[in-house]
Automatic annotation (TrEMBL), chain A:
Pfam families in the cross-refs: Cupin_7
Domain of life per record: Bacteria
Protein name: ChrR-like anti-ECFsigma factor
Location of the ChrR-like cupin domain: 109-200
Membrane-spanning parts: none
InterPro entries tied to this protein: Anti-sigma_ChrR, Anti_sigma_zinc_sf, ChrR-like_cupin_dom, RmlC-like_jellyroll, RmlC_Cupin_sf
Coiled-coil blocks: none
Automatic annotation (TrEMBL), chain B:
Start and end residues of each RNA polymerase sigma-70 region domain: 48-115
The entry's keywords: Sigma factor, Transcription, Transcription regulation
Domain of life according to the entry: Bacteria
InterPro entries: RNA_pol_sigma-70-like (IPR039425), RNA_pol_sigma-70_dom (IPR014284), RNA_pol_sigma70_r2 (IPR007627), RNA_pol_sigma70_r4_t2 (IPR013249), RNA_pol_sigma_r2 (IPR013325), RNA_pol_sigma_r3/r4-like (IPR013324), WH-like_DNA-bd_sf (IPR036388)
Family under the similarity heading: Belongs to the sigma-70 factor family. ECF subfamily.
Protein source organism: Marinobacterium mangrovicola
Domain RNA polymerase sigma factor 70 region 4 type: 142-193
Protein name: RNA polymerase sigma-70 factor (ECF subfamily)
MF terms in GO: DNA binding; sigma factor activity
PANTHER family referenced in this protein's UniProt entry, alphabetically: RNA POLYMERASE ECF-TYPE SIGMA FACTO (PTHR43133), RNA POLYMERASE SIGMA FACTOR SIGZ (PTHR43133:SF62)
Protein's GO biological process: DNA-templated transcription initiation
A Pfam family this chain is assigned to: Sigma70_r2
Length: 220, 201
């Protein structure tokens, strides 16, 4: 996989600081699963957290804390945890999806319960808690997503096919990392459908008539 | 003038000393964790516990969990340090960074389970305890020593992001600056830190 589009440093810092909403964190983790370059960068943004941990003013633990942990460390790790990790790995291998997404979906992209939301566009909402939304969009060849701007940040990870917009061409593994000021209109640019994961930290704002019509309908 | 200068030098010399000490400490703990992975020696674990436990707990409290939950998550984190020590790779991360990520992930999981307090706060309600300014200043001092000399504005956004777990939009709102400025300050801070780390190693 040749990845050309990566995250902004600020996004990786938000990931490392643990301040991303769940959907965005899953999306970042999924790209990291495929991208050595961003993994290397995250080891540096994580380091900021490590250095801060050293600098923090400690807060005393309960007096019996060490004893309680010592009582547990000789016991084997709970089966359940180990089992769920290995089943996630199986899911990931079977579906070809990156591990964090595979474990969240538990099925392949084609097995999902897609909902048609307009001409040539289907959607699957991951229904995660927290601000913003996390969805999979499945877009037919030649079709474009309505023009929209963003109030917050929007991350997109390509899982199948490709699209092009004002920012360039995006293929499997690539991410688009855009915020408030960016107006863009992705269009699927081959005869293969495009499936992408989109996570936002605030609702999208569509522009123009098409956007206004589509918004209540798509509910993005 | 002259006095100011020498004082400036003393301050920066003191900061250098602090940084050197911190660097040595970081390396020491990394060695302890690496040998724990090899030997499974409980005494080493106890040492790691006494250093990192109270720091993890402080960090988790800052992120917003009540002290009792923070204690539980910290114990859970230290237990994973023991269980996952064999996965630690000293050439890739320091002990503090590796332990930080373990603790952060567990804390996020717990916050999700407890439906993070912030969502229960009515939208417009101001955080009733904006962390006291004095404490803020002291922490920022320590942080600066740890992170090299960052300009105030950059240290502040790093602080809000990593220590208070605030999102970029929340930081923008709190400081009354555009989202784009929050991100550019973070990027600048990161560039400075990387230069600083290279100079250090
Ligand atoms: Zn990347």
């Amino acid at each position: 996989m040749k990845i050309r589009h990566h995250f902004d440093d600020a996004t990786l810092m938000a990931y490392s600081s643990g301040s991303l909403p769940q959907g965005m964190a899953v999306l970042v983790g999924s790209h990291l699963h495929w991208c050595d370059e961003c993994r290397e960068r995250v080891s540096q943004t994580d380091r900021i957290g490590g250095d801060l941990l050293e600098a923090i003013e400690p807060v005393a633990m309960e007096p019996d804390a060490l004893a309680s942990i010592m009582a547990l460390i000789d016991q084997p790790e709970p089966e359940q945890k180990l089992r769920s990790l290995s089943s996630d790995r199986l899911d990931s291998a079977r579906t070809g999806l990156p591990l964090p997404l595979a474990s969240m979906l538990g099925s392949s992209l084609d097995e999902l319960d897609w909902r048609r939301i307009g001409y040539g566009v289907q959607q699957y909402d991951l229904k995660l808690d927290g601000p913003g939304a996390t969805r999979l969009l499945r877009i037919a060849p030649g079709v474009s997503v309505p023009h929209h701007t963003h109030r917050g940040n929007e991350l997109t990870l390509i899982l199948r096919g490709s699209y092009s917009d004002e920012l360039g061409r995006f293929c499997v593994g690539d991410v688009a990392d855009v915020d408030t000021e960016v107006k863009h209109q992705p269009i699927v640019d081959t005869d293969e459908e495009c499936i992408c994961l989109i996570a936002t930290d605030a609702p999208l704002k569509f522009t123009g008539l098409m956007g206004r019509l589509a918004q209540p309908f798509i509910g993005l | 003038m002259q006095e100011d200068d020498s004082e400036g030098k003393n301050v920066s010399a003191a900061a250098d000393l602090t940084r050197d000490r911190q660097k040595r400490e970081r390396e020491t703990w990394t060695k302890v964790l690496a040998s724990l992975a090899e030997t499974r020696d409980k005494r080493l674990f106890a040492e790691l516990f006494s250093h990192f436990g109270p720091r993890i707990k402080a960090y988790i409290i800052r992120l917003g969990l009540p002290a009792a939950s923070a204690e539980e998550v910290t114990q859970e984190a230290m237990l994973s340090v023991w269980r996952k020590a064999h996965m630690f790779n000293a050439s890739k991360a320091s002990a503090s960074t590796w332990i930080y990520t373990l603790a952060r992930n567990l804390c996020i999981d717990r916050m999700r389970k407890e439906k993070a307090v912030e969502y229960e706060l009515p939208e417009d309600e101001v955080d009733p305890s904006p962390r006291h300014l004095g404490e803020h200043a002291i922490l920022e001092q320590r942080m600066k020593a740890a992170l090299g000399t960052l300009p105030e504005a950059q240290a502040q956004v790093l602080f809000l992001s990593y220590y208070e777990g605030k999102s970029h939009s929340e930081i923008a709102e709190q400081l009354g600056i555009p989202l784009g400025s929050v991100k550019s300050r973070l990027r600048l801070a990161f560039d400075k830190l990387k230069t600083h780390w290279e100079a250090q190693s």
